[in-house]
Each structure stands twice: as C-alpha cells, then as structure tokens.
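Closing statement on the adenosine-5'-diphosphate sub-project.
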Amino acid sequence: MTGVGQPSSVRDRIEVVRGDITTLSVDAIVNAANSSLLGGGGVDGAIHRAAGPRLLAECRLLGGCEPGEAKVTAGYDLPARWVIHTVGPAWRGGRAGEEVTLAECYRQSLMAARDLGAGSVAFPSIATGIYGFPLARAIPIVLREVRNHLAVEALPARVTLVCFDAETHEAYLEALGRA
Ligand code: ADP
C-alpha cells in the first residue's frame, strides 16, 4: 500500500515522454555526447544550441569523456540547472562491449545526478541515433539500469525518458507496458 509519507514505487518514478529534451524543466538533462565533448549532431547539437556558447567553453575544460563515463556542466541558458554529458558506444555489431558501455552510461549518469542532489533527470535515448545502437536492444538495458538505481537510491526521485521520434516513443511505451 502506498500512502502519505511512503516512498513512491520505482514504476511511478519513471516517466516516458515524447519531445525535445532541451525544453524540459528538470534539474538535470543527460547529453548523448561524443568523446571530444565539443558538440556534434543530434541531441548534442540541440543541447549546445539551447544552452548557448558558455556550455562549449566549460566543455573545453573537461578534457573529453570516455564511452560509458559521465561528466557534469552547468545548463546555462537551458531550463535545466545541469547537463550530464555521457558518451554512448558506437554500434559495431554488438561484440565490442557495446551493451556493457551503454549500461555504464546510464549507471554513471544516474550516480552523477544523485551526487548533484538532482531531484529530476531526463535522458535521451543514448546511442540509438547516429551511433546506431539497435533500439530494441537498448531499451531493456535502459529500463534495467534505471530500475536498479531507483530501487536503492532516493535520488533522482524522478527519471524522464525522452523520445524525440514516434518510433522510439512507441517502443519505450510498449516495453513499459504503457502502450
Ligand atoms: P547518439 O550519437 O548517441 O546515437 P543522437 O543524438 O544521434 O545520439 O541520437 C540519440 C537519440 O536522441 C535519438 O533517438 C534522437 O532521435 C534523439 N534526439 C535528437 N534530438 C533530440 C532532442 N532535441 N531531444 C531529445 N532527443 C533527441
């Protein structure tokens, strides 16, 4: 039974939305960056455009980021206070540790959010765009890592999985049994 003063269930702490992650008023958004951290296409480009040039200036100080790692900057002109930059695995057929690296992206980003004291964090679908990670193989990894984190950590209280396109949105909803 869930009542006043009781922590909400893991299920209730996960939300799937379709939209543009740069518009969300959450404490932190996650960027699917590349290892230079100097900007790129897809969601990375959108985040840099929306955050303004001060984001790139801070990223230049970070010395890049390895696949699976997560590094934090301010959000500058974004509604979000922080950006957690992580680098997904470029898909090379699935035998180069891509699934482990993708899991590490979510795990490290969630730990970074927790360490920031972020109450809410939003993720894009890391690596399933330009990096070519198959969506159907990514989603179970995403849900496992988010659930595992929320089962043992109070922060972030809420995780939003942001889907930019209809195909990604439908696949996430189906995987969560909310289609
Ligand atoms: P990667 O290189 O890690 O594959 P991409 O940016 O190419 O990163 O794609 C990751 C996902 O982010 C894709 O599903 C893409 O459609 C989505 N995406 C692109 N722009 C945005 C945005 N503004 N907000 C949320 N998701 C986005």
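DSSP finds five helices and six strands in the chain. With this model delivered, the sub-project is considered complete and its resources will be redirected to Aim 3.
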